[in-house]
Amino acid sequence: MDDVQRIKSIWDKLVMAVEDMRYLLDRGYKRESAVNFVASRYVLDRMGRSILYRCVYSSEDAKKIKEKAASPDELKGSRVAVDGFNVLNTLQSFINGKLLVLCDDGVVRDVSEVHGGFRPTSMTEELIRLVVRTLKELEVANVVFYYESQISKSGETSALTRRILKEEGVDGLVETEKCVDSALIRDKRIVVTSDSVVLHRADKFFDLAGYIILREKSSNLISLRNV
Hints:
By secondary structure, the chain is of the alpha/beta class. It has two domains: 3-56; 66-223, Rossmann fold. The protein is built from eleven helices and eight strands. The protein has helices at residues 3-9, 11-26, 31-42, 46-55, 59-68, 84-95, 124-137, 154-168, 180-187, 196-201, 208-215, and strands at residues 79-83, 100-102, 108-110, 142-148, 172-177, 190-192, 205-206, 221-223. Strands 5-4-1-6-7 form a five-stranded parallel sheet, sandwiched between helices. A three-stranded mixed sheet has the order 3-2-8, sandwiched between helices. Strand 4, helix 8 (154-168) and strand 5 form a beta-alpha-beta unit. The longest helix has 16 residues, at 11-26. The chain starts with a helix and ends with a strand.
């Protein structure tokens, strides 16, 4: 049984856990303490815990992030900054049929817990091209891709992204940074990421991976929207 099937098999229990998690967060409980309490109460496995930790927000936090979300129309003529590995990891999970969640803050996240790394595959070039072409369709003015310099293959991924930008005729730069989160926030562009740390500090963001995934009506996506 894969992660999608497993979560669907415990959906009723997960719904109750999500409701309890929101209740605790709305009353000021720390995220880790709330996750530990709720996950223990409902005997949730690693994936269930990950959904609670990464996808459930207090009403106030969810509202704040949603208010920062740019619409597709707002990207026309805008300058954007892309959290390269964050977007590629989410799209790679989508292509591989991994579990994706439409979270309380309206952002699509993978819950495979592949954080702080990236594994290039035969699909990497196609995924980068998909990102660049989607930005081109949205008529952004220019784009800068940021990749973590300490991650393996960041140099090769950066070079590949530069080539694709040139081939697709999109005005853009590619940079490697030790701390991409800081670079994204410092840049003052519309940021393209699902990283909650960045979203809390950014002025405006666009969930490009989520935009692509929702457009494709992915069968491995579950939504907390009506929970």
